[in-house]
């Protein structure tokens, strides 16, 4: 189905006018929001296969290869409620598929975008939240970032903590194979790590009976907003949705490889009545946002679980329970790439 040429020209003209009025005359800043008709989406449920290979994260009965398929199916079902969209899946059963084959499949079906569905785990089982990995390169970064901005908002609306939009470079380009292959194939790609299957904060969400359905619907809604889709069945129309626009980087967007430059306790005052320390903390990192903090009352031998850090602030005041009335405090600032810097030990007043 092709829209008439005249209609396309009017659309192109109005998009141009909209870009100019928004001060985005630079072509690099123009996000592709009116894809081919229909929009072709390829969903890639991560991992898969029997015989103990490529299972993905495994924790307390949660198998990543299974929950990615459940989420992907929910995403597909939801997306198909919209008009003007064609959805493909790289796999619909528990089968092995290489990363290159997944990217090549997306290209073969003419996908406008490839969405890779994943769940996370960490070695120390200490991390929680969602993150979206995108290509570090040019227009692939640009489109990835624009989509990921919508995606993170949808996941945040479900109550999940957002670790952010991330890139990672390896020796051959994008570190993650699926992003590298999709970029080589010219298919924009986002790898969505919905949350951690091995942390209580995220498990409190995942334990809900319809959690994977909700995640799939969130993914589909992000796609619908990004591509300005409409659904009579759902009674929604995202044709006026404002996409986030970033310039295409001229050099690859490198990941942060170093710990935060500053973590300092400016003051720490103990309230005997509430057994709480109120600490003023300054944390800075020029390479990536500070996303968590943790604290120690035993000189840095042991630390608390990770707490959300308000990344809009450099200096923040935090309340820390100190039931045993410890006399020294150390705070550690953790950045988006999970590098951390401890403060000096501070004598609590
Ligand atoms: Zn995975």
Brief overview:
The chain is built from 7 helices and 20 strands.
Strand content: 25-35%
β-strand number: 20
> What value does the Rg take, in angstroms?
22 Å
Number of domains: 2
Name the CATH superfamily assignment of the largest domain.
Zn-dependent exopeptidases
**Main sheet: which strands, in order across?**
4-1-5-10-6-7
State the major sheet. Answer: 6 strands, mixed
- Overall pLDDT: 91
- Overall geometric form: elongated
CATH topology of the largest domain: Aminopeptidase
Helical segment count: 7
Give the distinct bound molecules: zinc ion
Helix fraction? 25-40%
The ordered string of helix (H) and strand (E) elements is HEEEHEHEEHEEEHEHHEEEEEEEEEE
Oligomer: single chain
The CATH architecture of the largest domain can be named as 3-Layer(aba) Sandwich
CATH class of the largest domain: Alpha Beta
Content-based structural category = alpha+beta
Low-confidence parts: 1-30
Distance between the termini: 71 Å
């Amino acid at each position: 189905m092709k829209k008439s040429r005249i209609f396309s020209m009017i659309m192109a003209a109005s998009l141009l006018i909209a870009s100019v009025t928004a001060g985005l005359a630079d072509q690099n800043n123009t996000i592709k929001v009116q894809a081919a008709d229909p929009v072709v989406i390829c969903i890639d449920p991560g991992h898969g296969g029997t015989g103990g290979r490529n299972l993905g994260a495994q924790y307390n009965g949660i198998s990543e290869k299974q929950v990615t398929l459940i989420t992907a199916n929910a995403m597909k079902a939801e997306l198909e409620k919209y008009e003007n969209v064609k959805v493909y899946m790289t796999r619909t059963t528990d089968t092995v598929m290489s990363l290159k084959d997944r990217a090549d499949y997306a290209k073969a079906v003419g996908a406008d975008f490839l969405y890779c569905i994943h769940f996370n785990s960490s070695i120390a089982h200490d991390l929680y939240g969602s993150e979206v990995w995108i290509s570090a390169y040019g227009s692939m970064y640009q489109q990835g970032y624009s989509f990921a901005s919508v995606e993170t908002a949808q996941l945040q609306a479900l109550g999940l903590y957002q670790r952010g939009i991330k890139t990672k470079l390896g020796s051959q380009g994008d570190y993650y194979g699926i992003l590298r292959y999709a970029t080589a194939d010219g298919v924009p790609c986002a790898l969505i790590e919905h949350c951690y299957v091995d942390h209580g904060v995220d498990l409190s969400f995942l334990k809900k009976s319809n959690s994977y359905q909700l995640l799939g619907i969130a993914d589909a809604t992000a796609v619908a907003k990004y591509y300005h889709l409409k659904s009579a069945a759902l009674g929604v129309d995202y044709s006026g949705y404002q996409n986030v626009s970033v310039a295409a980087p001229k050099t690859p967007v490198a990941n942060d490889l170093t710990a935060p430059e500053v973590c300092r306790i400016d003051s720490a005052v103990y309230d005997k009545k509430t057994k709480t320390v109120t600490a003023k903390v300054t944390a800075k990192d020029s390479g990536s946002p500070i996303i968590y903090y943790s604290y120690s009352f035993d000189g840095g031998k042991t630390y608390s679980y990770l707490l959300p850090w308000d990344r809009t602030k450099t200096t923040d005041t935090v309340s820390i329970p100190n039931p045993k009335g410890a006399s020294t405090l150390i705070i550690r600032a953790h950045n988006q790439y999970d590098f951390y810097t401890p403060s000096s030990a501070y004598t609590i007043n």
